[in-house]
Amino acid sequence: MSAPHRRLPPLLALAAALPAGAGCQTFESYRYCPELPGAQLAALPARLSETGLYADLRAGALAPEVHAYRPAFELWSDGAGKRRWIWLPPGARIDTSDMDSWQFPVGTKLWKEFSRDGVRVETRLLQRTGPGQGDWATMAYLWNDGDSEATAAPDGVEDARGTPHDVPAAHECMGCHGGRPARVLGFSAIQLTHDDPPGLLTLDELRRRDLLTAPPAGDLELHADAGARAALGYLHANCGHCHNQDRPARTGLRCFDPEKPFDFLLRARELGDVTQTGAYRTARGQAIKPGDPGGSDVVKRMNDRGRFPPSMPPLGSERIDDHGLALVRAWIQGLR
Ligand code: HEC
Ligand code: HEC
Quick count: other Cβ atoms within 10 Å of Cβ 127? Predict the structure, then answer.
């Protein structure tokens, strides 16, 4: 489907200067992520087969030391199927001294593959290029018709490979990934705490392989009933990368950064008591009205795909996630 924010004329920079609430134009000014430096794009391979993911791309054989994993709480992308992998430079460990913001060694690569309606559409790459927190190169690779190669698509592709799936441009990645200091969103202590089929990397497995500088003693699971855990996990994975209070400060134009200090992110130190979580501390009584899902802005924004007020999430989805919405509704209904 069309992605109206894809190419913004420079005029919209002016909209950023308008007072809040000046009309629906103003939200467009939130949608502006700066272009990436050409040098950063040029540093990435032109073909997926050259990125180090596969030993043999056509055969689907992964390269040595590339590990598959899956986050406990997934991002909804209009029903797209996903697979994910990580590669760490040999001998290097992940700096886990901040349990909510793991620092990955320079050279680390993560990939995420998207399929829609049975068609493999794209594989995304995040690669740490330097010691600075923002030193990550980003690219999506578009699969060809024979599935024999995927090539870099720095400008993105709408309705790619005959599906309704839009491949984001390289600078749009930061609309979501730029919302967290460490940039990686789904490979974390909380997201890797789950029992997965063998062969997938989990927190346990990372500990066993001695890949963490400061391994947590136990698992990082929210102490709450199943309904609250599912709803708060959903908000963590689908909203927390933009709505969190340790978001890097905005420099220049707005790249999907919210004004209100809602915090939908789960944090390691808050898992023992559900009332300590960001959603309770910052949104309960405001965008979350206990016992009243229909009157809660969180539900209203999720249950909409209109342009104003902007539906949530404002990027990466065109279809309402009925299942996720039901989880959040049920949880709010039961809140007192
Ligand atoms: C709509 C928000 C959004 C956009 C836009 C987006 N991502 Fe992500 N991405 C996420 C979230 C959230 C996760 C973690 C949850 C998951 O994997 O389901 C993630 C996970 C990933 C991962 C796995 C590592 C990680 O951070 O967990 C890679 C690799 C990745 N994205 C690459 C990209 C690239 C490259 C682009 C741009 C071409 C991009 N993403 C655009 C939200 C986004
Ligand atoms: C890509 C970044 C991004 C994601 C992901 C995102 N939001 Fe937002 N959100 C924004 C921006 C930008 C605004 C508008 C600016 C504002 O109102 O502060 C906003 C506004 C809101 C508002 C209205 C704030 C107000 O004024 O009361 C609510 C409620 C909200 N978001 C809920 C959610 C929920 C729930 C999710 C997950 C399902 C979510 N958002 C995901 C960026 C995001």
Answer: 23
